[in-house]
Amino acid sequence: MPELPEVEVTMRGIRPALSDATIEKVWFDDLKLRRPLLPELKKLEGGKVTEIKRRAKYIVVNTTNGSLLIHLGMTGHLSVLKAPKERAKHDHFELQLGNGSIIRYNDSRRFGLIWYYPAGVDPNKGDFLKDLGPEPLSEEFNSEYLYKALSRLKKDIKLSITDPKVVVGVGNIYASEVLFAARINPMRRSSDLSVDECEKLVSAIKNILARSIEQGGTTIINFQGADGKMGYFVQQLNVYGRKGKKCPVCGTEIAMVVLGQRSTFYCPCCQKN
User: Fold this and answer.
1) Domain boundaries, the chain
2) Do 99 and 17 meet the contact criterion of CB atoms below 8 Å apart?
3) Architecture, CATH, for domain 143-266
4) Among 26, 84, 145, 182, which residue has the least CB neighbours within 10 Å?
5) Could you write out the DSSP letters of every residue in the chain?
6) Among residues 15, 54, 57, 158, which one is catalytic?
7) Do 4-125 and 143-266 share a fold?
8) Which residue is catalytic, options 2, 5, 123, 134?
9) Is 84 an annotated catalytic residue?
């Protein structure tokens, strides 16, 4: 599943084509994504794009005719076409712009989301965004906030930092990497972390997510940016997907444990605590 860096890279990739553009036509098929593609999406036609941003793992496109909310799900991908091109098998949605560009959404597993909010309705107050925690790269997300948030949580720290109500955008891949960087065992009880450990964890989250964005995200299976390029941060992964291989720091074999039904990778030596 695309995580925060991949969604940020995608948002940045489509923003040049969308900025100040007029949406001339909205096309979508009749196949259901996470939610049905509703006729109301047509109301975007004739609207001018006023803002493109990311919130958590969602892309928000604000226009004079309402807002478009996009979630890539497991296999969703947005691309920018400079000229019309025959639609592929899993193309489900597109925006045809007045500047000649086409923003096209492809999703083979159809777990993504394309949602419309009428003009005057703030997507941040809608069901998908209203209960989300702070952005990890914001000033709001700091050690003081995290320590307070974790103090009431008894679950494993890996499960807490992947909870979007605690902090958004830290998915399965990056959770393993940031816990390794902070030298924290993924099975530690969240409420047991000290202020100093929270400081290290916040620093690791900010650093690793920022580096991944710079590298175009992480391509494990099929992620690619809006320009078709793969994410190169996969070359810098220290523990994720490396079960049985040597830890780059101490040489101990990387271990794997299933937490919250997701594979979690860590070094038993470097992450004793």
Assistant:
1) 4-125, 143-266
2) yes
3) Orthogonal Bundle (1.10)
4) 84
5) ---HHHHHHHHHHHHHHHTT-BEEEEEE-S---SS---GGGGGGTTPBEEEEEEETTEEEEEETTEEEEEE-TTTEEEEEESS-----TTEEEEEEETTS-EEEEEESS---EEEEE-TT--GGGSTTTTT----TTSTTSSHHHHHHHHTT--SBHHHHHT-TTTSSS--HHHHHHHHHHHT--TTSBGGG--HHHHHHHHHHHHHHHHHHHHTT-B-SSS-B-TTSPBPBGGGG-SSTT-TTSBPTTT-PBPEEEEETTEEEEE-TTTT--
6) 57
7) no
8) 2
9) no
Mean pLDDT across the chain: 92
State the average pLDDT over residues 61-70.
98
pLDDT band at 236 (very low <50, low <70, confident <90, very high): confident
pTM over 0.85: yes
Check if 199 is active-site. Answer: no
CATH code 3.40.50.720 for 4-125: no
Could you confirm whether 5 is annotated as catalytic? no
Residue 3 annotated as catalytic: yes
- 220 band by pLDDT with thresholds 50, 70 and 90: very low
| pLDDT the model gives residue 219 | 43
Among the listed residues 155, 189, 206, 262, the single catalytic one is 262
Question: pLDDT (tens digit, 9 = 90+) per residue, 171-205?
Answer: 999 999 999 999 999 999 999 999 999 999 999 99
